[in-house]
UniProtKB/TrEMBL annotation:
Residues 63-171 form the PurM-like N-terminal domain. Its EC number is 6.3.3.1. Its main location: cytoplasm. The lineage of its organism: Bacteria, Bacillati, Actinomycetota, Actinomycetes, Actinomycetales. It holds the Pfam family AIRS. It catalyses: 2-formamido-N(1)-(5-O-phospho-beta-D-ribosyl)acetamidine + ATP = 5-amino-1-(5-phospho-beta-D-ribosyl)imidazole + ADP + phosphate + H(+). GO terms for cellular component: cytosol. It is found in: Cytoplasm. GO terms for biological process: 'de novo' IMP biosynthetic process; adenine biosynthetic process. Residues 183-352 form the PurM-like C-terminal domain. It comes from the Bacteria. This is Phosphoribosylformylglycinamidine cyclo-ligase.
């Protein structure tokens, strides 16, 4: 047998190694009610099983059901939540980042799961995080079907945590949205963002740090503190996008909505280019909207070049609908009826080799179309 070191004269337990299973159980108890509120009639069983189950019988009514899946996290926005000790909002960011990525292909979400890694389980904090996820899932009618909280002592600091999630949805093959449906003359309709959403926070945090601004600082342009503005949750587009699909299409025809682009990491042009076919260009007019104050403040505070801001932040556009001109008014009406500002951003044209502004193509590994972002943003 190997020699027993002096410091091991006392028994070593899982708890003394830094893992508190009782705290984990307490966190589950605190979050159970919120998670249960997300359950739909299709869910089989309840909270606490090894695997979440959902009845997929409805898929028998599909001719060719395609399953859509996506996974994501919240990024360094978590650092803002940790600094302010406010943990019940980033769950909505997670849901928005994950579920709205599958909605862009026209998929209806079936379920979501989450995963939290932390240095030490603080039951109330973990419950706050999961309650945020559950509240957002309930708002879009998607069950939070499973999750995991993992304690990583020695790998993460006691107050550190990170969160990730995944979702699965389904779409009928002949109703799938995407580049294959986009045509010259299609109209681009922007759906406004609620703020920074959950992208670009490494840039934002560096700007704030360099400027010496405290998160508690009241900013007149925001009408609240800097920290409150930076923690503003991501807008959820799931219901409004599904409403567009259901309202504007019919059983006999897919409808005028051709593609959706979720504006996340990489900014407007890089994400819009992902849903365009080769040979087409989406012309985006910067003058079509007013960049919200949070973006202007960050850009000016850090002297961030416009090109870098455009390639990092959403600048006020959270989702773009690419729609046949016959459906543009319907998209605008549905968005605004849901309380989401919307406006015409530009249109799709054939690529004639001429650009009016900054041309963006070949992003995110997609060999497709291009985005020509031109003009000047409105001055305040």
């Amino acid at each position: 047998m190997p020699p027993v070191p002096d410091q091991a004269s006392q028994p070593i337990t899982y708890a003394s190694a830094g893992v508190d299973t009782a705290a984990g159980d307490r966190a589950v108890e605190l979050m159970k009610e919120a998670v249960a509120a997300t359950m739909t009639p299709a869910v089989v069983g309840g909270v606490g099983g090894f695997a979440g189950l959902v009845d997929a019988s409805a898929l028998r009514d599909y001719t060719r059901p395609l399953l859509a899946t996506s996974t994501d996290g919240v990024g360094t926005k978590v650092a803002i939540a940790q600094a302010l000790d406010i943990h019940d909002t980033i769950g909505q960011d997670l849901v928005g980042m994950v579920v709205d990525d599958i909605v862009v292909v026209g998929a209806r979400p079936l379920l979501m799961t989450d995963y939290i890694a932390c240095g030490r389980v603080v039951p109330e904090r973990i419950a706050d995080i999961v309650r945020g996820v559950a509240t957002a899932c309930a708002a879009i009618g998607t069950p939070l079907l499973g999750g995991e909280t993992a304690e990583h002592p020695g790998l993460m600091g006691p107050e550190d945590y990170d969160i990730a999630g995944a979702a699965t949805g389904v779409v009928e093959a002949d109703r799938m949205l995407g580049a294959q449906r986009v045509r010259p003359g299609d109209v681009l309709v922007a759906l406004g963002s609620s703020g920074l959403h959950s992208n670009g926070y490494s840039l934002v945090r560096r700007v704030v740090e360099a400027a010496g601004w405290e998160l508690e600082r009241h900013v007149e342009e925001f009408g609240r503190t800097l920290g409150e503005e930076l923690l503003e949750p991501t807008c959820l587009y799931t219901r409004v996008c599904l409403a567009m699909l259901e309202t504007l299409s019919s059983p006999a025809a897919p409808g005028p909505l051709h593609a959706l682009s979720h504006i996340t990491g990489g900014g407007l042009a890089a994400n819009l280019a992902r849903v365009l076919p080769a040979g087409l260009v989406a012309g985006v007019d910067r003058a079509s909207w007013q960049v919200p104050p949070v973006f202007s403040t960050i850009r000016e505070l850090g002297q961030v070049p416009w090109e870098d801001a455009e390639a990092t932040l959403n600048l006020g556009v959270g989702m773009v609908a690419v729609v046949d001109p016959s459906g543009a008014d319907g998209v605008l009406r549905i968005a605004e009826g849901s309380g989401i500002p919307a406006w015409v951003l530009g249109e799709v044209r054939e690529d004639d080799g001429r650009a009016r502004g900054r041309l963006v193509a070949g992003t995110k590994g997609v060999d497709g179309g291009a985005v020509d972002i031109h003009g000047d943003y409105r001055s305040e």
